[in-house]
Amino acid sequence: MAHGHNSKEKVVYVGDSRVRKGSMPNTPVDYTAFPGKSEAFIPNFLLKEWMVGVVALVGFLALTIAHPAPLGYPADPTNASFIPMPDWYFLFLYQLLKYPYVSGDYVVLGTVGVPGVAFGALLLAPFLDTGKERRFYKRPIASGLLILSILACVYLTKVSWDHYQHQLEINNVTPEHIDRAEKARQAHEAGQPRPNPIQREEAAEVPIVDADDPAMELAASCLQCHGSDMKGMPGAGIPSLRGVGDKLTEEQIADIITNGQGAMPSQADQFSTEEIDQIANWLSRQKAEAAE
């Protein structure tokens, strides 16, 4: 207490002992009081999350630009050599459905059950993994499931792609988008217009020779792939039978029918030797000169 106006007099403040000091401060502690353990949601945390999202989006866009969806030929139900393939991000599910325990009688398990469990576990992860530890090596269950899922997707994708390449090699088939790009490149180098894949090859316009020959009816099973008009699908690896006599001899045609070639399997179990000779003789007469 002060009893005068002397500036040098000591001033003592006396508090009321009946008023207790509160245990909680009136002003909240700033997050800087916990360095490395907390931060402001706006703008610090929000900015970091936004930057992570941008990097992921740019990476995905770069990947889709570098590997665009291939453009094939128009759909053709008679093209028996076509090997269907989904987009690369579905290859692991495509391979999974090839296994016997998730296909056939168990196709519901493969299409609904297994993906449902995987996505359900992902949705329930925040409720199942409630630990405060953020370091991945301190969360063995969550980290183990994540690593296992990534390895499974990578493995199934690689197996599916290798099997696809193997099937192309066995059937001697060039993928449509590669064949289309190669023809466009050759036309560009020759100074010609880009070929239209919808239009038929010029050789396919050669008329059929002896269309009333009984051998044509006998070769009905062959025409299921080569087309009832015998024009085939050259871009898909199925050659035209019109004018085939200008390219192959009767003996060569008979050998192909008997033993198969490329994507065409052997037809020895479908025809007798006499029928093969009859079909080969008729096909050998399919020449442009004979049609004239």
Task: Describe the protein.
With 292 residues, this protein is mainly alpha-helical. 47% of the residues lie in helices and 0% in strands. Helix 8 (250-259) crosses helix 9 (273-284). It is elongated and about 135 Å long. The relative contact order is 0.08.
Q: What secondary-structure arrangement, pairings included, does this model have?
A:
Blueprint: H1 41-66, H2 91-96, H3 107-128, H4 140-171, H5 176-189, H6 214-218, H7 220-226, H8 250-259, H9 273-284, H10 288-291
Helix pairs in contact: 8-9
Order of helices and strands: HHHHHHHHHH
What structural class do you assign from the helix and strand content?
Answer: mainly alpha
Q: Write down the overall geometry.
A: elongated
Distance between the termini: 131 Å
How confident is the prediction overall: mean pLDDT?
A: 79
Radius of gyration: 37 Å
Number of alpha- plus pi-helical segments: 10
Helix amount, in percent?
40-55%
Q: Which regions have little confidence, pLDDT < 50, spanning 5+ residues?
A: none
The profile of the biggest β sheet is: none
- Strand fraction band? under 5%
Count of beta strands: 0
